[in-house]
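Board notes (copied after class):
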Amino acid sequence: MKKEIVVSEIVISIAAVVAILLIAVQVNAFVLFALVLFVPIVFYRKQKHKDETDSSHLLSLEEATTQYGEPDDCVVADATRGNETAGCILVYRRERMMVVAGEPVSIDNITDVTTVNMATPYTVGQYQLVLTTKEPGREYIRMEVGMDAGWAKDVATEVIDAIKAVRKDEA
């Protein structure tokens, strides 16, 4: 399947480059010069990210309970998605970790818990729970919690209380 995707990407890329070159020759020499610089940059960026590990696999609730056992606590962040990892936070006290939005996170690495309103002057946005961590590449873990500011505050308070309880057990 990956080979089919790679072959189709190459064919589409070559066709696009040929079409753009034909247009560039007709339009302007500056466009041709820009393409000569732009195309190698695109291929360089693809090569640069080629060797990165695939960390996009998020745990489902079943996988988390199979891997870590039954959670000590579950904080429902988004009531509409409470049966999914995107809607709840599983707390494991003995392991000193949480599964937040499908990602296992060590409680020792969490430095801050806050809520953010994602609304703009032109759109209505949801509130997000934002966990700040010490892990490089995963400094912020965001989770949608709905449209209610009170609910978002309550969810953040529950998460902070769960973290405090785990840290208190350590002392």
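Comment from the instructor: The longest strand covers residues 110-117. The chain has a mean pLDDT of 81.
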